[in-house]
Specification:
The chain is about 75% helix and about 0% strand. With about 210 residues, the protein is an all-alpha fold. α2 (about 70-95) crosses α9 and α7 (about 165-170) runs antiparallel to α8 (about 175-190). The protein is elongated. About 25% of the residues are buried.
């Protein structure tokens, strides 16, 4: 075997070693990319969770800081409970076979997370009512915070006390999410949609949410 042949063999072996190292590096880079992507996803998820928690905390502070008189609170509560009751009844209308399994709006909100059929119907009802998830969160928060001390006023009684409830909400509610939710609730009810009687509303919303935020 001459020197040229020996050199050629040595070069091929060296190139194989280099190729193996490059493949190993490529695999390491791919693994690093996957790790990076996973970390980014976790970071984004964590950021969204923190932002969501901060928004919820701010919403609670806004709800608890409302300076409504008892009469004003009752009027707002009346719109809120009518909308929440309507959402529940609309879901049941679309899911008659699940009436017994969805006795309250709280049960709808809990089960829609794992039940695709309920989720689809829920989204359909929200769209029909012109509401968003954030609006429902705001209305539920208001209901939990003030439902135990407020009472329902009929439409006629509400008109006797306040002519322009939207103006009152716009002026007195500064939290945007809460303001939007309440304004949309008023708009929905003022369209003339039929709702349950007050007794049925309270029965439907009994034990609405199992825990109340302090």
């Amino acid at each position: 075997m001459n020197n040229e042949t020996t050199t050629l063999i040595s070069m091929k072996e060296a190139m194989k070693r280099v190729d193996h190292k490059l493949q190993a590096l490529e695999a390491q880079f791919k693994e690093l990319d996957l790790t990076k992507d996973n970390l980014i996803q976790k970071f984004e998820h964590h950021s969204k969770m923190l932002a969501s928690q901060a928004a919820q905390d701010e919403l609670w502070r806004a709800v608890l800081a409302l300076k409504f008189t008892s009469m004003e609170l009752n009027i707002i509560y009346s719109y809120v409970i009518e909308v929440l009751s309507r959402l529940h009844s609309c879901v049941l209308e679309k899911l008659p076979d699940l009436v017994r399994g969805l006795p309250t709006l709280a049960s709808v909100l809990r089960r829609k997370v794992k039940n695709k059929r309920i989720q689809v119907v829920w989204e359909s009802v929200l769209e029909e009512c012109g509401l968003q998830e954030g609006d429902v969160t705001a209305l539920c928060t208001f209901f939990i915070a003030h439902g135990n001390k407020a009472e329902h006023y009929s439409a006629k009684v509400r008109q006797m006390y306040i002519r322009d409830v939207t103006f009152m909400i716009t002026n007195m509610v500064k939290n945007q999410a809460l303001q939007d939710g309440l304004l949309r609730a008023v708009q929905l009810i003022e369209k003339g949609k039929t709702v349950m009687a007050p007794e049925e509303q309270k029965s439907s919303l009994k034990e609405f949410i199992p825990t109340v935020k302090n």
